[in-house]
Design a protein that fits this description.
By secondary structure, this protein is α/β, with parallel strands linked by helices. Helix content is about 45%, strand content about 15%. The protein is built from 35 helices and 31 strands. The structure holds phosphoenolpyruvate and magnesium ion.
């Protein structure tokens, strides 16, 4: 039997093998294949990682031999060997999953160094300081990420050494200081772990590989996967690669660059580098790097070679690249390339530019922008006028655009806690690390004192579309004491600050935010989007103002107007309360008569805004308790107005109290008991339509009956609606078409959809209630237990956010089939929250709905998701 291939030498794989080799490994092979200068090495597959964890942290048969074989191949190719007296091989070990995952073990450099090889390294480089510095870095990284010693222990030791030697920065430490530090570090490991730092390179390698495999299941990685919807069974690859040194003196260096600006998309190289440094110095943000444009003056040959490679990679990959490189004594090496993460604005700019450059076609461009990214474009910006007058306290790097206002917190946990209480916070840190991800996700914005545009905080915030100011060196952060200073200003935990992530400015206090303005690219791009999508996109809007926003974002109508939301206003809620507590039909009719003109006027305005597009208006669906007064003083006031005794009214209210209002007297059950409510609403809708029709304005009202589960409910109510409507239309002698349909939000309605369709002219899936009733999860209380379901892997996603295809989705599918069997031209849409969720929109496309309806701000997201669904399926 042929052994399974667990290990691939660079060049044996291709870019298409991302799933097996991880993104980094696949691209290292690809770059090797197209002749770029890549230090040789090999990749252990992602499958191996999964096997290793399944086998209880043991190697599958044959793996050890394959690692040995590839190591030998590497040694032969380099003419170097582990532990060799003259030419010791040193390698880096890096994780690399199919998708970029900052939560995992990242990198161990200089592996292969020990008490002996360090001497050879010194001899060969003729640089004693370099040798000891490399060795102490290796022990520190190995101790931290492989052996699990807290990295502060090493930080303390180096800090103590600096104090002892009167050194200001790391580079002030001499070769001898660093040599002493090596001993200190070894002692730390021995004290902390009870075992010595391993001297044998093969043992080092095995431990490092195991640590990468292990890191797939560390807490940070799991959190990151949960936050980003990444499956847990992908595994990570391990890349073992010959070391090249960016810290071999002033002709060496290392950097990170993008082939275009990841912030604006401008077609101009973008990035940073550090002379005499190793990769982790750039990423960790411990030194603030130089802009790549400086390299042109400092090392023109390297710069030119880099620019050629950038171009070559872009043409090869047909996308913007994010690359890591190192130059050792004037010789350039590529260490990584991958698709560059970018802001939404940059994504649009790059997509539009690349189509214009002829590099990609429109379809590819449409697939390139993540629907969720559209959110960023719609993000708030600081009010410019107020900004001009606000107190600017510091300026850092504009790491991720958008305005953010919040109260300062210094720990990720606090950010999570405060956000849970509904507070807006800004997370302020010296620098961020992957542990902070959850806090970053919940904060309004992020401010860091250290780090460049490609530091952790910057990259992660950009990915999240979150406002971030990084590398703000004018501030000093005291995390433990919970304050930061900006010159002579002290900002404490709980104080308000405002960030402008687009300029890097930090302000004391709160600056008002204004809505985003969309660039010309947005219009161009969305036009392409609309060429490909099949699904219509409508909006859920209850007011003329919401309708305007919806129209601006390209909604093709209103898919849900929740009429009860029209009554939340103080002036109207009283009339609703009177209606609810009315003791007889006459009182109820009186109360309804005061509501009629309000409703009619609302409808007139919405119809006018929507300019002849369909508007679906749902009959009142309030869980009654939401409208009843609970305060004694409010009850007192209402009692006075109604001429009732306080106790009498209170009794009425008590009698209306429901144990389970979501399954109580709501939806169509209300007009079944109180037909006068339906009468008033139908009148308001039809009278408004008639009035506009008479003025020559086209209106397309669609009256929707909520929470139905029995065909006779629909039959009865539709009969009443049609009778009232037709009479009004006839009396006014106008030509007006209207439709009557139902929401489908009860499992029983799905099962008898064929019967319902006999009456209903359209279906709109209310998947909020349908999810609630299918799972038996209260939509109002699920926050108490659903997060645990996600954490424990019982559910992959919150079913109230992303439609559960297996359960709820099956019911929806069934209802679509049965409904269309009765009425082949039945118009079908969705108006639950899922209508704006990309994965759910895809489902709606697949099962052949006519449209989705979502909140106005999500309309562009839904349009894009619909286009991508059409292109993908
Ligand atoms: C639904 O249930 O999905 C729906 C849209 O109605 P509501 O959220 O108003 O109950
Ligand atoms: Mg509902």
């Amino acid at each position: 039997m042929v052994d399974k291939q667990y290990v691939y030498f660079f060049g044996e794989g291709t870019r298409d093998m991302k799933k097996l080799l991880g993104g980094k490994g696949a691209n290292l092979s690809e770059m090797t294949n197209i002749g770029l200068p890549v230090p040789p090495g090999f990749t252990i597959t992602t499958e191996t990682c999964i096997l290793f964890n399944e086998l209880g942290k043991k190697y599958p048969d044959g793996l050890e031999e394959q690692i040995d074989g590839n190591l030998k191949k590497l040694e032969d190719k380099m003419g170097m060997r582990f532990n060799d007296k003259e030419n010791p091989l040193l390698v880096s070990v890096r994780s690399g999953a199919a998708v970029s995952m900052p939560g995992m073990m990242d990198t161990v450099l200089n592996l292969g160094l020990n008490d002996e090889t360090v001497m050879t390294l010194i001899q060969k480089s003729g640089n004693e300081r370099f040798g000891w510095d490399s060795y102490r870095r290796f022990i520190q990284m190995f101790g931290d990420v492989v052996m699990g010693v807290a990295h502060e222990k090493f930080e303390h030791a180096i800090h103590a050494k600096k104090t002892e030697k009167n050194a200001k920065v790391d580079t002030d430490l001499t070769a001898n200081d660093l040599k002493e530090l090596v001993d200190d570090y070894k002692k730390i490991i021995k004290d902390e772990k009870g075992t010595s730092f391993p001297q044998d390179p093969k043992t080092q390698l095995k431990m490092a590989i195991d640590a990468v495999f292990d890191s797939w299941n560390n807490k940070r990685a799991i959190t990151y996967r949960n936050l980003n919807g990444i499956p847990h069974d992908l595994g990570t690859g391990v890349n073992v690669q010959t070391m090249v040194f960016g810290n071999m003196g002033n002709h060496s260096g290392t950097g990170v660059a993008f082939s275009r600006s990841p912030s604006t998309g401008e077609n101009k190289e973008y990035g940073e580098y550090l002379i005499n440094a190793q990769g982790e110095d750039v990423v960790a943000g411990t030194r603030t790097p130089q802009s790549i444009s400086k390299l042109k003056d400092e090392m023109p040959a390297i710069y030119n070679q880099l620019m050629d490679i950038f171009k070559k990679l872009e043409i090869h990959y047909k996308d913007m690249q994010d690359m890591e490189f190192t130059f050792q004594e004037g010789r350039l090496f590529m260490l990584q390339t991958r698709t560059g993460k970018r802001t939404a604005a940059a994504a649009l700019q790059v997509a539009v530019d690349m189509v214009n450059e002829g590099l990609i076609d429109k379809k590819t461009a449409v697939m390139r922008v993540e629907p969720a990214q559209i959110d960023q474009l719609l993000h708030k910006q600081l009010d410019k006028k107020a900004q001009g007058m606000a107190q600017l306290i510091a300026k850092g790097l504009p790491a991720s655009p958008g305005g953010a206002v919040g109260m300062v917190v210094f720990h990720a946990d606090d950010a999570v806690e405060e956000a849970k209480k509904g507070k807006k916070v800004i997370l302020v840190r010296t620098e961020t690390s992957p542990e902070d991800i959850e806090g970053m996700a919940t904060a309004q914005g992020i401010l860091t004192a250290r780090g460049g545009m490609t530091s952790h905080a910057a990259v992660v915030a950009r990915g999240m579309g979150k406002s971030c100011v990084a590398g703000c060196e004018e501030i000093r952060v005291f995390e433990r004491k919970e304050y930061f200073t900006a010159k002579d200003i002290k900002v404490n935990k709980g104080d308000w600050i405002t960030l402008d992530g687009s300029t890097g400015q930090v302000y004391l206090g709160q600056i008002p935010v204004v809505d985003a303005e969309l660039s010309g690219n947005f219009g161009i791009f969305m036009k392409w989007v609309d060429e490909f999508r099949k699904l219509g996109v409508r909006a859920n809007a209850d007011t003329p103002k919401d309708s305007e926003v919806a129209l601006k974002f390209g909604a093709a109508g209103i898919g849900l107007c929740r009429t009860e939301h029209m009554f939340f206003e103080a002036s109207r809620i009283k009339a609703v309360r009177k209606m609810i507590v009315a003791r007889n039909e006459k009182d109820r009719r009186d109360a309804l008569m005061t509501l009629l003109p309000f409703q009619k006027q609302d409808f007139i305005e919405i119809f006018e805004v929507m300019q002849g597009l369909p508007v679906t208006i749902r009959l009142l669906d309030p869980p009654l308790h939401e409208f009843l007064p609970t305060d004694d003083s409010d009850i007192e006031e209402l009692a006075k107005e109604l001429g009732l005794e306080f106790d009498e009214l209170k009794n009425t209210i008590n009698s209306l109290h429901e144990i389970n209002p979501m399954m109580g007297h709501r939806g169509c059950r209300l007009p079944i008991t109180y037909p006068e409510i339906l009468e008033m609403q139908t009148r308001a809708i039809i009278e408004a339509s008639i009035e506009l029709t008479k003025k020559g304005i086209i209106v397309k009202p669609e009256i929707m009956i909520p929470v139905v589960g029995i065909a006779n409910e629909v039959k009865l109510l539709k009969g009443q609606i049609v009778e009232i409507s037709d009479e009004l239309i006839k009396k006014n002698n106008v030509k007006l078409e209207y439709k009557v349909g139902t929401m489908i939000e009860v499992p029983r309605a799905c099962l008898i959809a064929d019967e319902i369709a006999a009456e209903a002219e359209f279906f709109s899936f209310g998947t909020n209630d349908l999810t609630q009733l299918t799972f038996g999860f209260s939509r109002d209380d699920s926050g108490k237990f659903l997060p645990e379901y996600i954490n424990k892997g019982i559910l992959e996603k919150d079913p109230f956010a992303t439609l559960d295809r297996e359960g709820v989705g099956e019911l929806v599918k069934l209802a679509v089939q049965r409904g269309r069997k009765t009425r082949s031209n039945l118009k079908i849409g969705i108006c639950g929250e899922h209508g704006g969720d990309p994965a759910s929109v895809e489902f709606c496309h697949i099962i052949g709905m006519d449209y989705v309806s979502c909140s106005p701000f999500r309309v562009p997201i839904a349009r894009l998701a619909a286009a991508q669904a059409a292109l993908r399926n």
